[in-house]
Amino acid sequence: MSMFTDAMVAFKEPRAIEIINGRAAMIGWMVALSNEITNDQSLFRQVINTRTFTLADGVVKSSTFPATGAFLVPVVVLATLAASLAPVLRGNEESGLEKAPKDFFMFKAESEMTNGRGAMIGLVALLFAEKFTNGAALF
Prior knowledge:
2 strands; about 10% strand
């Protein structure tokens, strides 16, 4: 039962929730940006595909179905959650979830929180930008 209570820190502490969401957003932002640059696909197209086709009788139909990104989102979230909880489950005092860890050289502990917030805002901003530019926010 102790392992379960240790793992629950991720769902009770506001700092832990924001850190884990920020980590997932940072990974998601980089994956979305990478796919947008290499495959020339908007973020929306990476998650949802729409296919329009004409039937034999001339009727035009559209079909919407999940793209690769729709399956990648839960994988990234679960991997981030597992990696974030690993130090807590191993019993390390400084997991970075409950309280900010010590600074390491030029790397500041609060930078992770700031970068995570920026990534969360960036993902939402990218979706809005693509909505108003017809899917061409970057290129």
